Amino acid sequence: MDAEQHDVGVSRVAAAIAEPARTRMLCALMDGHARTSTELASIAEVSASTASAHLAKLRELALVRLHVQGRHRYYSLADPRVAQALEALMVIGQSASPPFTSRTPDRLQFARTCYDHMAGALAVRLHDRLLEAGWLVGVEGDGYQLSEPGEALFNGLGIDVPALTLQRRRFACPCLDWSMRRPHLGGALGKALLQVAIKRKWVIQDLDSRALRLTAEGQRGMAARFGIITETQTKPAAAIASRLASPVDLR
């Protein structure tokens, strides 16, 4: 793709996302769930025919994917890169005036899904801890690889690390967190880690939002596996974020 084609492509995608109703639809799909056009029309507060037109445009630009099951038609984000781009745009869209105060609701700021991986204060602290401990190592090209102890850690969680490296998506990469304005872990490794957290009931995913609820078992698991001491989610979001951003107490 030459420079002119690249510019046109960026402009078309930017124009599509700039429409508020389409933005609401895309953000609603960031929890990784597929939704019908009727559900998305309700979320975007538009008519069914308008929603269909918006979804057709988003499909044309490869931002959403259509899934057909019998008479039912569902839409989801096309791939994790769309969610990553939206998360980054949310950061840019918020006021940059210091000091930064997130307007994200408490539950979403603490832990939520970012398409197929974890975001929020908890995910940012986990990302930082993986780097601090040397389990995750930066590589050229804005990505990560696991050290030998890191691979052993993830294998111990039941994650088939070699299989993840064979996937067509990036293995592990930073994804800028909308509410924290710092990276959380994306890529195939981030997806696998969220799946483990859900399977082990460390977190419970809301059915109607992106929020993740950390369980008592999750608090124990985070402490035992990663050395992360967490607060309960009943604390104010700012206090939670501050506690998770502080150095880890391993005593």
Q: How would you explain this protein's 3D organization?
A:
This is Helix-turn-helix transcriptional regulator. One of its GO terms (molecular function) is lead ion binding. Residues 2-97 form the HTH arsR-type domain. One of its GO terms (biological process) is response to lead ion. It comes from Pseudomonas marvdashtae. The protein is an alpha+beta fold and 251 residues long. It has two domains: 3-78, Orthogonal Bundle (Arc Repressor Mutant, subunit A); 82-245, no CATH class. It is 49% helix and 17% strand. It is built from twelve helices and eleven strands. The strands form five sheets. The protein has a three-stranded antiparallel sheet. Strand 10 (203-205) and strand 11 (212-214) form a beta hairpin. Helix 7 (121-132) packs parallel to helix 12 (237-245). The chain is globular. It starts with a helix and ends in a 6-residue tail after the last helix. Mean pLDDT is 83; it is low at 95-102 and 233-251.
What's this, in brief?
With 251 residues, the protein is of the alpha+beta class. Helices cover 49% and strands 17% of the residues. The strands form 5 sheets. A 3-stranded antiparallel sheet has the order 1-3-2.
What's the total count of β strands? Answer: 11
Percent of residues in helices: 40-55%
The whole-number mean of residue pLDDT values reads 83
Q: Describe the biggest sheet?
A: 3 strands, antiparallel
- Cα Rg: 19 Å
> How many distinct helices?
12
Q: What is the 3D shape?
A: globular
Low-confidence stretches: 95-102, 233-251
Percent in strands: 15-25%
Question: What is the H/E order?
Answer: HHEHHEEHHEEHEEHHEEHEEHH
GO biological process, one term: response to lead ion
Pfam family, one: HTH_5
Domain HTH arsR-type: 2-97
Protein name: Helix-turn-helix transcriptional regulator
